[in-house]
Amino acid sequence: FVKYYERLSYDRQDLHQRHQRAIVSSREEDKLIPLEFHAYQRSFKFRLKRDVSVFTEDFKLVGNGRTVSAVTDVSHIYSGTLHGEEGSLCHGSIIDGHFEGFIQTQNGTYYLEPIRRLGAEESPFHSVIYRDSDIGKSPFHSDYSGFNSKGVSCGTQRLCHYLQNLTREQNPQEESLRRSQRSLDYSQTTCLLHIQADNLYYKRFGSMEVVLAQVANYIKAVNEIFGRTNFDGIRHINFKVKSVDVSQEADHSSPTYSLYIGPEKLLALHSENNWNEYCLSYLLTDRDYSGVLGLAFEGRIGNAGGICSKYQFLRDNSKATLNTGVVTLQNYGRYLPTRLVHLTLAHELGHSLGAPHDGDKECPVKTAFSHGNFLMFPRASSGEQYNNDRFSPCSIEFIARLLKAKKDQCFVESNRPICGNQILNEEEECDVGYNDTDPCCYSADQPVDRRCKLKPGKQCSPSQGGCCNHGCVFSSQERQCEEETECAFESHCSGMSAVCPTAPPKANYTLCNLGTWICLNGVCARSVCVKYGLEPCDCVTESMMEKCKLCCRHRGEPETCASTPAWRQYFGGSSILLPPGSPCVEQQGYCDKFHICRLVDADGPIARLKNSFFNFEEYKDVADWMKSYWYVLLLVMLTLAALMAGTVFLFGRNTDKTESSSEGKKSGSQRGRRARTVIYKSEDGGEDMTNICL
Prior knowledge:
The protein is α+β, with helices and mostly antiparallel strands. A hairpin with a 5-residue loop joins β15 (312-313) and β16. The strands form eight sheets. Strands 4, 5, 11, 12, 13, 14, 17, 18 and 19 form a nine-stranded mixed beta sheet that branches. Strands 1-10-9-8-7-6-3-2 form an eight-stranded antiparallel beta sheet. Helix content is 24%, strand content 22%. Residues 416-508 form the Disintegrin domain. It holds the Pfam family ADAM10_Cys-rich. Zn(2+) binds at residues 347, 351, 357.
């Protein structure tokens, strides 16, 4: 997804020490952490200060169904501003000396991540930085964005139908009266969130500390989008996290354990819980739903979906809370950049607050090509254009309408020890959380002088890394700790440390991603066109199959765009097919598993089925065939008519014979007739007696 990034190598140890000092020091100067580095031909200088504004004062963290601590540690979350740039914002976390987050500037937004997140070599560089304009520009899985990737919608159309069928109808007069009897409280602008992170999401990041950092990062970015929007006089709408529930271990008995649960079913299971305590409840996962990255019940006046919805009986007599949504981090096997996760979550929260898709009958918004699509547009956007993170006037109108109707029902006015979070900090020898049965390390429940320390005679703990075995000794050099990838060799333990060494990269320009990309510094990073001084482009052809072939061109010369057979001197005349899921037709479609370009459909498969029954769009080819081969259709109809006539003739004769032979037996059989009484239960609960003669 990331076209270009630059590597960073600021002093991690110094940053980590300053972070640790800021936690324990009472001096204000120690609580300000300076950070400086050079990238993108400019200098970044800012001071970071602890920022817990996205969490409520009574915030709690739950792991595996129990509260981790009465006071949850969020001291690793920071924010600040760029030196000398008014209106800038920096927000992120400091974990193990890495700063991960985003920097909003006048020239765009930059994102920082640990380099290991991209699978690249960590020495001498440990972090990467990329700009929002560097996302979504590769020829395959990088040229689309969040909630409607590859042409599949976020699913609101399907959920709207589901909601109408299940929720009980409300009296519109009562709803109108209830609204008119109260005045709008403009000070209540905060929506309290419950965030559920399933085990797949937890496995993606590997620790509670990083999960909390990701959640804070998402909510801070979403608050920037909502906070700058004026919803018809309602300003400063924001979200705060009241609780985070993380599934650290896979629960085989849980109905959500299966990897083959569809997004609608997953959301329905999440909605079965009672979320009355929260304005909204969202589930974070790391599942591949082939283009669907988000799903949420759309808030409407008079139904039970969206903000402030309560736990209630549905028409099928089940109970659910429909103030829910789902967001996933994966799309066609690829991890989404942070920017696209921000847009996906903001898009789904827009649905929860009542906004339909731009371009629907309710919101016929035309695309402003010079500034890009608005946030609620159902099709993919790159995320770099001005409108991509802004609401359209129609979306603002719908959200304002719902806020005025439901906001005041649930909106509000706007030092736990580190040991036990299963993150190895500088002062800790090991950290196994609250597991008292661990053979290598004392748990956080032990006395202060022993907790998070190795037990006597133990060399290491598996919590330190993948090269410590369950016998609490370093693994031998024969032990493989990382598998070989397309761009990096396998890695083996050193026998001297519990940490798995960085895997050695394969040679640059090694082919990867089914031969369509090349490896650079151990990462499958660029199109194979780049290997020969070319750049990728969309194939110019009318054939939907040809559009799913790799095409290259000379830099800055669109007229030279051609498929690989035309570049015989580089590719030997062979044709290279794009992997399934690659965008085509300028992001308006995607390549399926048969390597055919499929144009996007904002409403998804349900709309196609509807069109088959009502609009007959799927039958255009059939109609053309019937016009050309009308005589075949006539022959089939005549054959069926002949078969029906023959059947009536044959069975009609047999019936006449049967009736004549039974006339003589009729009187005798009547003498043996007797009555039987059958009792039926009527609909109103009574009983009807009916006599049937036999």
